[in-house]
């Protein structure tokens, strides 16, 4: 370009044109505004990577060669124009848009513009900018500026199409950005003191190369007094920013994993009724040990912004609240991950009282501006604690992950990390490639930044799962063969992540949803369509969106992934967001909030084993390749599994029992309401098979009760409350076993409960953390009896948290249990397997099984189970949990032929009722089952060996039991007593008749020919006998001696049954009969299993049994087999003759009766020779023990608030000399001289 020179020889600026796009004069906002504007610019502005946030004053400007002279001339112009310079206040508070032919530019400006606000009056900021631009541009030939040449100062936020939805969305975000800053401490307002001189570098990025100072303030602003209070501080803050720092803003190299915008979580404050940022310092160094963590993900669907879909908002709120039908406790962390959240819906959520109460923590506040149309947001309950979060950019704009770190749910250096994603949609080569890159970016970030933490990734992955859809896309040419193979293989890195749904359900199972179950179309599911979260056949919103001519299929888009090698375990998975079924109006259109169903996953941490170890105890076991899948096992097990009605009945029974135990004093017939004298905190928690999810239709429910009162008082209170309030709900007492670890048996309808008890205030206070506390924690410093009861809960929780795939475990457990029943080896009472035996044996196999967890099936586990235990040396090996070393150190007794240990100390051998004969029978059945499975015979019905048992032996020991009394419960208890003593017979045979192999069948038989003729209850047990080969070579005399020994054993066992029966079940020849005899097979006749219930009618007080009259096996059901009283040795285990029986227990000796307490009170009150004020009543308080009260203050009316039942009276004492004149325990009565009286108590 030809230029002229001035007097000094330099080119004249007036002869230069503003035509170069390589340089610019601009105003750069202060650094503290950059994160807010860049949040939108990074997603919408095509020049984001090349320009920092800026307002152009001169652009285009001069050529790069002329830039130094141009800057020098502009400095001179600024200095000469006014003595005080051109510093001025700049305020950007007006969003607007420039509409072009193909798109629109959204910006912030200080004054009127053509974005729909033409009539606005010009602001001081706008006038100052125009005056500055006019002065500087007047030095040049105005060429190169496009359009009408009018200067419109603005800060560009982004570009968008002319489509109303994205255009209005970005405009609303700009308005929200301004609105949020109007009420914040730092509005978009600052004092401009300098201009940035910018030049494009070799990579095309605009860099700040120089600056032009404007001075302290403008004359006009000084006269108006605008901003006088903060002028100096604003100038100091801006001038303090170095040039190098400004150059880095928005222009520096991006981080390895994208652009991060970190932030602290916000919490709803009831004091100011708004959401405010939370300081993370409050949780530093602290760790919360939750029992369970709920992670839910829900795509709420953005289908319209203008107008917003407000009619769906209540449905979405209801769906979110349905994740927890009842509000979670304060100790239950719950995290909610939402996708496709708009600014409008976020404001609706943040203003909803129910959401504020349930989820008072959020990634955003009411002032937040969401960057995209469809955004990811995380909510959390208060128990999760404050968290910090970051936005991880993916390669594709508007796609990324919100990654939150929860230090309270982990530790400061290893926080629980939760990421929520919304990946690119579509099934095409480009979209699949984009999803693969996005997942790799997330995986690389988690591996690099949070390698030591546990991860959870939840969200809408938009990964097609329907094989039919994937194959159809290949057939239609929508995807290439490589993409087809990639999608079929899966884009999720299985080395890093485990899919919670696949862990819990597998590929062809799903949760039970009545809404979908009633939809016949929904039942037609192909491969990859089970558990679909997007289903146009059942979701009315999805049905309106899909193109039906493209043959849409159900897809499981929404998932919750966990770290494969982490400490999290999946406890339950379910979907939510389904419409309610209205049985009253079947014609009514069902509505739901979104086109997706949500997914809720309950997770738990593996417990901390502390000093107990935690190293894997045992070599890895190789799984065999088999050609049987879990469909066959499920088909075989299904007929025995509880149905939904049964599950609902059990849940209702637990709720009813819990409410009864917590019942204080309610209004009853004829009695008015009386306020409580103090609530007793009681926790009732299912344990054993029901808690593990392996119970059958007829299984009992074992429960642990925890409270602060003594065991004696608790069971007294429980029995009284059940008697008083349980009748209306069908709850009744059946038996109370008063042993070292007492057990209360209760029936709710037809469901039997066994209640154990643990007394501990510390356990109640730390209940939610009990499963995760280390074994040596001081909270477990309890008496042995209480700790044994508590361990039933701790062991159950430990197994739930450590078994790799709980659904595989459950299916395998049910298969093995049904096999054990069919094979005659399921009954811990007879020395065989119980439910807890199978649990511990199977858990060991599941944990030691080698291979990819995804490839582990229940069929493979079952196959490995029988292969392993058919070769186990039971006499020497101890079966313990491989991840908890306490069981391995169990000191077994020589008389214990089988050792299967519990988990937490004090360790119990749950198989200590086993005998050498029962172990031999078990080993044989394991070997037979292993051979059957090896040959491909999996049908459980073919495994039944009842008929083989009846035909296998030439001779049997027959134990007849007959009962014809009036109380059927005594008859049933008598059979239980006989069953529990049969192992003693086997021990005696092994000790004194080792030449005999004996096998008992663990069920009662009955003669079919006489069954209809009997009016009383009669049955018998059979013990098969065979020669084990050791008698060969023995002389005739020795064999005769052996036979005599054998008959002596039988006679001694019969005598033991008759003399050692309990006092509550005293053998009485007038109503019962027991006989033990040796019989030949031919004399048995036609027999079958006795399936009759011998009944449990009669008052519960008839069956209060004490420890001295029970063997261990009576205390645990066959279903559980968890021995509570491990310090009680089976009396027949010692190598002594069974004919030697212990001394019968003491029975109450008939004698003089004690006058009732009522007679004593009346005598004291009305006998003129006695002074009522001189007597005290000693009575037993349920919580405080023995208390004393003046006789005159004793309340006799039941309606009186201070009424105390007379049976609690322990003694009467004379105040004057301290002499006890009446004592219930010693039966000492000085008032009446121990004369007989009629009891009225």
From TrEMBL:
Residues covered by the Poly(A) polymerase central domain = 808-932
Give the highest taxon in the source lineage. Answer: Eukaryota
Q: What is a single cellular component term in the Gene Ontology annotation?
A: nucleus
Keywords for the protein's UniProt record, in alphabetical order: ATP-binding, mRNA processing, Nucleotide-binding, Nucleus, Transferase
Q: What is its main location?
A: nucleus
The annotated regions of Basic residues compositional bias extend over 1140-1152
Q: Sorted alphabetically, which Pfam families does this protein's record hold?
A: 2_5_RNA_ligase2, Exo_endo_phos, MJ1316, NTP_transf_2, PAP_central
Q: Which GO terms describe its biological process?
A: mRNA processing; RNA 3'-end processing
**Location of the MJ1316 RNA cyclic group end recognition domain:** 1154-1224
Which Gene3D superfamilies would you find in this protein's record?
1.10.1410.10, Beta Polymerase, domain 2, Cyclic phosphodiesterase, Endonuclease/exonuclease/phosphatase, Poly(A) polymerase predicted RNA binding domain
Specify where the region named Disordered lies, as residue ranges.
1114-1152
Location in or out of the cell: Nucleus
**GO MF annotation, one:** ATP binding
Q: Which residues form the Endonuclease/exonuclease/phosphatase domain?
A: 296-596
Q: Where is the Polymerase nucleotidyl transferase domain?
A: 685-715
Indicate yes or no for the key word ATP-binding.
yes
> InterPro entries in the record, alphabetically?
Cyclic_Pdiesterase (IPR009097), Endo/exonu/phosph_ase_sf (IPR036691), Endo/exonuclease/phosphatase (IPR005135), MJ1316 (IPR040459), NT_sf (IPR043519), NuclTrfase_I-like_C (IPR011068), PolA_pol_cen_dom (IPR007012), Polymerase_NTP_transf_dom (IPR002934)
UniProt EC number: 2.7.7.19
Family to which the UniProt record says this protein belongs: Belongs to the poly(A) polymerase family.
Query: What is the protein's given name?
Result: polynucleotide adenylyltransferase
The organism is: Tuber melanosporum (strain Mel28)
């Amino acid at each position: 370009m030809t230029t002229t020179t001035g007097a000094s020889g330099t080119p004249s600026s007036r002869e230069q044109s503003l035509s170069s796009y390589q340089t610019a004069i601009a105003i750069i906002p202060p650094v503290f505004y950059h994160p807010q504007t860049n949040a939108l610019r990074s997603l919408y502005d095509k020049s984001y990577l090349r320009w920092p946030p800026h307002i152009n004053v001169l652009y285009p400007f001069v050529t790069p060669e002329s830039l130094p002279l141009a800057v020098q001339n502009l400095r001179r112009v600024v200095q000469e124009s006014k003595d005080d310079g051109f510093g001025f206040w700049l305020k950007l508070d007006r969003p607007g848009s420039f509409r072009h032919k193909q798109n629109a530019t959204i910006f912030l400006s200080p004054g009127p513009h053509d974005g729909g606000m033409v009539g606005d009056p010009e602001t001081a900021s706008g006038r100052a900018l125009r005056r500055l631009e006019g002065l500087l541009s007047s030095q040049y030939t105005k060429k190169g500026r496009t359009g009408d040449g009018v200067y419109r100062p603005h800060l560009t936020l982004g570009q968008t199409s002319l489509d109303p939805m994205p255009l209005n969305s970005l405009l609303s975000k700009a308005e929200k950005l301004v609105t949020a800053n109007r009420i914040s401490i730092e509005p978009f307002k600052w004092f401009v003191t300098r201009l940035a001189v910018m030049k494009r570098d070799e990579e095309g990025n605009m860099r700040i190369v120089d600056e032009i100072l404007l001075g302290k303030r403008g004359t006009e602003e000084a006269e108006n007094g605008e901003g006088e209070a903060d002028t100096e501080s604003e100038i100091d803050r801006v001038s303090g920013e170095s040039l190098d720092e400004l150059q880095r803003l928005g222009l520096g190299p991006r981080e390895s994993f994208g652009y991060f915008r970190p932030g602290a979580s916000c919490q709803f404050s009831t004091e100011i009724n708004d959401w405010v940022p939370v300081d993370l310092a409050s949780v530093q160094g602290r760790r919360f040990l939750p029992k369970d963590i709920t992670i839910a993900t829900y795509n709420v669907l953005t289908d319209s912004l203008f107008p917003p879909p407000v009619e769906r908002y209540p449905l979405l709120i209801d769906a979110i609240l349905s994740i927890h039908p009842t509000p979670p406790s304060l100790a239950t962390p719950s995290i909610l991950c939402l996708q496709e959240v708009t600014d409008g819906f976020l404001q609706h959520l943040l203003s909803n009282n129910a959401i504020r109460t349930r989820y008072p923590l959020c990634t955003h506040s009411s002032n937040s501006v969401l960057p995209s149309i469809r955004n990811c947001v995380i909510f959390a309950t208060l128990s999760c604690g404050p968290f910090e979060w970051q936005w991880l950019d993916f390669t594709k704009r508007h796609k990324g992950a919100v990654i939150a770190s929860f230090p309270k749910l982990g530790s400061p250096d290893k926080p629980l990390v939760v990421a929520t994603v919304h990946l690119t949609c579509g099934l095409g080569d480009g979209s699949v490639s984009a999803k693969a890159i996005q997942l790799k970016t997330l995986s690389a970030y988690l591996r690099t930044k949070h390698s030591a933490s546990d991860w959870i990734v939840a969200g809408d992955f938009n990964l097609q799962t329907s094989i039919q859809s994937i194959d159809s896309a290949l057939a239609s040419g929508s995807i290439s063969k490589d993409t087809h193979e990639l999608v079929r293989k899966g884009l999720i890195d299985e080395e890093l992540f485990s899919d919670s749904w696949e862990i819990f359900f597998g590929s062809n199972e799903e949760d039970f949803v009545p809404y979908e179950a009633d939809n016949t179309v929904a039942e037609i599911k192909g491969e990859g369509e089970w558990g679909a979260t997007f289903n146009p056949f059942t979701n009315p919103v999805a049905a309106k969106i899909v193109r039906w001519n493209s043959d849409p299929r159900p897809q499981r888009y929404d998932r919750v992934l966990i770290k494969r090698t982490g400490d999290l375990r999946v406890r339950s998975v379910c979907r939510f967001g389904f419409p309610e079924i209205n049985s009253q109006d079947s014609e009514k259109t069902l509505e739901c909030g979104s086109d997706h169903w949500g997914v809720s996953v309950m997770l738990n941490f593996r417990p901390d084993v502390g000093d107990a170890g935690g190293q894997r105890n045992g070599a890895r076991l190789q799984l065999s390749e088999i050609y049987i899948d879990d469909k066959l096992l499920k088909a075989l097990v299904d007929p025995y599994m509880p149905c939904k009605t049964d599950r609902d009945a059990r849940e209702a029974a637990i709720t009813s029992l819990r409410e009864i135990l917590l019942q204080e004093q309610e209004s009853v017939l004829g009695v008015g309401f009386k306020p409580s004298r103090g609530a007793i905190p009681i926790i009732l928690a299912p344990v054993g098979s029901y808690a593990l999810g392996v119970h059958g239709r007829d299984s009992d429910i074992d429960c642990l009760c925890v409270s602060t009162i003594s065991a004696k008082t608790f069971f007294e209170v429980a029995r009284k409350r059940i008697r008083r309030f349980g009748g209306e709900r069908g709850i009744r007492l059946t038996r109370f076993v008063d042993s070292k670890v007492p057990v209360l048996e209760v029936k709710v309808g037809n469901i039997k409960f066994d209640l154990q008890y643990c007394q501990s205030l510390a356990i109640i206070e730390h209940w939610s953390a009990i499963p995760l506390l280390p074994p040596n924690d001081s909270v477990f410093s309890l008496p042995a009896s209480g700790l044994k009861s508590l361990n039933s809960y701790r062991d159950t929780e430990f197994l739930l948290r450590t078994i790799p795939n709980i659904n595989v475990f459950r299916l395998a457990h049910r298969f093995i249990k049904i096999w054990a029943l069919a094979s005659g080896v399921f009954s811990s009472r007879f020395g065989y397997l119980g439910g807890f035996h199978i649990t511990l044996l199977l858990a060991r196999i599941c944990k030691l099984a080698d291979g990819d967890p995804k490839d582990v099936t229940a069929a493979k586990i079952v196959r490995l189970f029988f292969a392993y235990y058919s070769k186990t040396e039971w006499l020497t090996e101890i079966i313990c949990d491989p991840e908890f070393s306490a069981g391995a150190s169990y000191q077994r007794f020589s008389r214990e032929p089988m050792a299967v240990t519990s988990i937490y100390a004090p360790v119990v051998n749950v198989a200590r009722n086993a005998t050498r004969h029962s172990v031999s029978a078990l080993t044989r059945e394991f070997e037979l089952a292993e051979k059957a499975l090896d040959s491909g015979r999996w049908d459980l019905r073919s495994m039944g060996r009842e008929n083989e048992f009846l035909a296998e032996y030439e001779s049997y020991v027959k134990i007849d039991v007959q009962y014809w009394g009036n109380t059927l419960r005594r008859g049933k208890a008598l059979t239980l007593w006989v069953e529990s003593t049969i192992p003693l017979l086997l021990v005696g045979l092994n000790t004194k008749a080792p030449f005999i192999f004996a096998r008992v069948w663990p069920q009662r038989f009955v003669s079919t020919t006489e069954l209809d003729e009997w009016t009383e209850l009669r049955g018998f047990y059979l013990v098969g006998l065979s020669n084990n080969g050791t008698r060969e070579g023995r002389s005739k005399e020795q064999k005769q001696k052996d036979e005599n020994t054998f008959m002596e054993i039988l006679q001694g066992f019969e005598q033991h049954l008759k003399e050692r029966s309990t006092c509550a079940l005293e053998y009485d020849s007038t109503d019962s009969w027991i006989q033990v005899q040796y019989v030949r097979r031919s004399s048995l006749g036609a027999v079958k299993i006795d399936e009759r219930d011998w009944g449990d009618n009669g008052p519960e007080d008839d069956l209060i049994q004490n420890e001295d009259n029970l063997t261990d096996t009576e205390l645990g059901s066959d279903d559980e087999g968890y021995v509570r009283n491990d310090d009680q040795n089976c009396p027949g285990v010692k190598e002594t003759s069974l004919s030697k029986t212990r001394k019968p227990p003491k029975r109450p000796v008939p004698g003089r009766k004690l006058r009732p307490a009522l007679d004593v009170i009346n005598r004291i009150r009305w006998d003129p020779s006695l002074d009522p004020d001189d007597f005290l009543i000693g009575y037993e308080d349920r919580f405080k023990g023995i208390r004393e009260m003046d006789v005159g203050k004793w309340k006799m009316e039941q309606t009186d608030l201070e009424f105390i039942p007379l049976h609690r009276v322990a003694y009467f004492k004379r105040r004057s000399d301290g002499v006890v004149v009446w004592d219930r325990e010693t039966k000492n009565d000085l008032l009446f001289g121990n004369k007989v009286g009629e009891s009225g108590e």
